[in-house]
Structures are given as C-alpha cells and as structure tokens.
C-alpha cells in the first residue's frame, strides 16, 4: 500500500505557522514512507476564502521547501461538490442519515440549555428531503469508536455520546466534516496528520468512513501551538503568519528547523540540525502530545545562529530583498542608485555577526548609502551633551590631519582626543557615532568610518558641529 498523506489548508487568512508545521510533518512522513504528499485547498467556505490566500499558501510552502510541482495537487475542494452531495445522498438512501426540521430553538426548548448537542427528535419521523431540512447522520447507539492515532495512542469515544450531527445543511450543501472525509476517501489518503483541534471531529469522521464502507485512515493529531501564556496561537493576538516571519528576515532553513521542534526533538542534545537529519530522524510516534510553545525569542536566537553560519556570499545574497525592496518588503530609505555594492560587501561581515533577522540589515547600513544620515533625535539628545561640541571640534581637526584613513588610525586618534578630555573611548565615540550614523548603536564605529571615507565622515562631523552652535 502506498502511503498517501495530504495537507488540507483553508485559504481564509495568512498562512499560520502551526499549519506550516503540520505541512512539514506530512511532507517528511511521506518522504520517509516512499509515499505521496497531496495538497488540497479546502475552499468551500466561499464567504471567507480569497484567491490571494491560496497563492500565499502555495508560495509560503514553496519557501519552506515544499516546492510547487513536487507534490500532487493542488486540488480544490470546491471542485468536488458533486461527490460530497452524492455521498450525503448515499448515506440517506442507506438509512444512515435522516432529514430533520428542528431549529436550534426547538431543540433548546425540548432539552434545556444544559444538554449539549441534538436530542434525536427527528430520528424516526421519516421526513422527506425538503427546503430548510438538514440531513443528520444517525450515530450508533452502542459501542465505541476507537481512533488509531500515531501521536495519541487510541483515543476512544462512546458512540452514545456522539450526537446525530449534521452532514448537509438545510440548503442541501454538505458540511466541512463530510466534504473532508469524502475527499480524503477519493484521494486515497492513508494517514491524516493534522492539528489537535480537529480531534473532536475525528470520531464523527471515522463513523462516516465506516458508514461509507471504506477503511478509515490512520490518524495523527499533532499538538496545538501556544504562546507564552499557554493560549492557542491566534491570528488576532499573535504573530502567526509565516509570510510575516519571512518578510522580517527569518531564513527558511531556520524556520523549518524551529517548526519541527514544536513537540519533537532530534537525537542527542541538539536543536539546530541539518534538514537531512530531521528528515531521517523525525518520527510521528515520538511527537509529544502536549501543547507546543512557540517561543519567538528562541526562534530569533535560532535565526541569528543560522545567519552567522551562512557563507559570506550567501549572506550578501540573502540580504538583497531588504536592500532593494520587493512586492512584500518595503524598500530601504535610500534610492537604488545610492547603493554601493562594494561598500556593502566591506561591512557585511560586521553586520552578519550582529543581526538576528535580515531586515535589521537596513538600519545598520543605511548611513553608508544616504546622502545625510537619518538622525534619531533621542539618540542625538543622549549623545550630544555638554562637551560634545568641543570633542567634535577636536575630532575634526585630528581626523583632517590623518595620513592613513583606516580603522586602526581612526581609533587611536579618537582615543587620544578623548583621553585629553578625561573620556574613555566609549564616551568619546558616542557623539561621533550619532553625527555620522544617526544612531547610538550599530556596526563597529571605526570600520564604519573607514568604509564611509574621509570626505563624507568629515562633512557629517562638521554638519553636526554646526547644529550644536
Ligand atoms: N481545512 C482544515 C483546516 O484548515 C483542515 C482539516 C484537516 O486537516 O482535516 O483546518
């Protein structure tokens, strides 16, 4: 039997990191089993779907290594509406489902607010199909439904506690629960790997598989992803969109490594491992069923490590989208013709060790490409205290006299200027740094001045001095 798995996102918003995690787990499982990964876009909720979100899913998958063309699909659930209806009809004709005309108020009036779910009122009324009548599945009164789950063992549900749930609405349209089963069935899915939030649906879905006469798949409900308050990661409250991480400058390799650690760890005391190791070692039955904490701080640190491990050329290449701007990444503050690749290459090694996400490259290097630095006023106020004017005057004179404009000489010069005023180097640097780069923090100052060059450095120091008059 060929293993066939599917990833079945609904295109109702940005692509959630939890979804990306499930996609990767499906992808690896299929690969390990010599199986097939199917992508199915569950686009039946017409009111909430948007084509650009489907495109977002495809490109985000591509970004984390599930490349277009390397999987089966995408299939679109909406194309199979006929099959969903036919399955509902089959269940009705076989006596496994019945029509019901109860409103929610009717049910509540009969059962009171305490009872959860439907009371079975129309079970034996023999209602014909008709406008406004929902089709309900007749759940067995006895026995239990045992779900075989690679992550959770064998969750067992008593059938009598499962209500007669709706499989097609009053307008005849099949609900998600049924459509999802029918598609899995016709696509020959053998393993359903998906988020824990779908576990409550699973006994109902398994009953549908049984009723439609097909052996159910093996399930794996992977843990829900939570924030630091142990709340389920939500798009309203938390940063969940994979695209947002991508555009902030997380590396795809760092991201997918981190995502795979949500509920699982490779052997040994390691977290940062090559993708090939994850592909080899990952086991669904080793996934911890408890909620997995999405720790953004840790992800950031991870990303910093990944950035530092890049060969220099790759780092320069990886920075490019932030140096030019793209459709989704804002352009930098300088004009394209102000950018100087040689100057960038000269400071790139200094930046590589200091940034945790690639977008941070821009504020670190903008002083090199802008005609005038972007002055951060708070930084200015902090650095340009008493004595700053005198220090700048002395620095200008000393720098003008320098024979060789290199980091070492610049440092020795400013050190001497500071010492004459009883200032340690750090204190002496602050006004110079703000005058030249506009900020109090950034790349090592003297290397920056060397790359910026004598004329531009002196021009900026003089301009700052004028402002202090
Ligand atoms: N379309 C469902 C979702 O986005 C997935 C259901 C499933 O994986 O079975 O949550």
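-> sequence recovered:
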């Amino acid at each position: 039997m060929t293993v066939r798995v599917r990833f079945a996102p609904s295109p109702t918003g940005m692509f959630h990191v939890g979804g990306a995690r499930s996609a990767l787990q499906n992808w690896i499982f299929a690969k390990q089993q010599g199986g097939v990964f199917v992508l199915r876009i569950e686009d039946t909720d017409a009111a909430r779907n948007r084509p650009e979100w489907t495109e977002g899913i495809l490109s985000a998958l591509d970004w984390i290594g599930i490349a277009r063309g390397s999987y089966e699909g995408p299939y679109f659930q909406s194309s199979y509406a006929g099959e969903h209806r036919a399955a509902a009809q089959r269940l009705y004709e076989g006596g496994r489902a019945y029509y019901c005309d109860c409103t929610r108020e009717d049910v509540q009036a009969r059962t009171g607010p305490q009872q959860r779910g439907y009371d079975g009122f129309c079970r034996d009324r023999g209602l014909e199909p008709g406008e406004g009548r929902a089709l309900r599945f007749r759940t067995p009164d006895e026995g239990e439904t045992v779900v075989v789950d690679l992550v959770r063992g064998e969750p067992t549900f008593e059938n009598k506690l499962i209500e007669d749930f709706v499989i097609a609405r009053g307008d005849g349209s099949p609900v998600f629960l049924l459509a999802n089963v029918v598609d899995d069935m016709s696509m020959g899915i053998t393993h359903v790997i998906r988020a824990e939030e779908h576990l409550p649906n699973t006994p109902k879905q398994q009953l549908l598989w049984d009723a439609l006469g097909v052996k159910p798949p093996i399930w794996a409900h992977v843990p829900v992803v939570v924030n630091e308050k142990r709340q389920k990661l939500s798009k309203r409250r938390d940063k969940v969109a994979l695209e947002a991480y991508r555009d902030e400058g997380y590396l795809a390799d760092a991201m997918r490594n981190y995502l795979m650690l949500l509920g699982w760890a490779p052997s040994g005391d390691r977290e940062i491992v090559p993708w090939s190791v994850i592909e080899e070692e990952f086991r669904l039955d080793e996934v911890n069923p408890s909620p997995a904490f999405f720790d953004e701080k840790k992800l950031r640190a991870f990303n910093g490590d990944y950035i530092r491990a890049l060969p220099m050329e790759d780092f320069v290449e990886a920075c490019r989208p932030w140096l030019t701007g793209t459709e989704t990444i804002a352009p930098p503050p300088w004009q394209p013709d102000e950018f100087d690749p040689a100057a960038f290459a000269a400071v790139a090694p200094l930046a590589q060790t200091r940034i945790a996400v690639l977008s941070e490259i821009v504020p670190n290097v903008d002083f090199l490409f802008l005609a005038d630095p972007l002055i951060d006023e708070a930084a200015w106020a902090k650095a340009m205290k008493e004595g700053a004017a005198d220090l700048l005057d002395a620095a200008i004179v000393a720098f003008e006299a320098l024979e060789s404009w290199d980091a070492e000489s610049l440092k020795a010069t400013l050190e001497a200027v500071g010492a004459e005023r009883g200032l340690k180097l750090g204190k002496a640097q602050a006004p110079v740094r703000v005058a030249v780069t506009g900020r109090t923090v950034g790349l090592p100052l003297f290397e920056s001045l060397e790359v910026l060059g004598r004329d531009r450095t002196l021009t900026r120091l003089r301009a700052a001095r004028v402002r202090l008059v």
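The chain has a mean pLDDT of 96.
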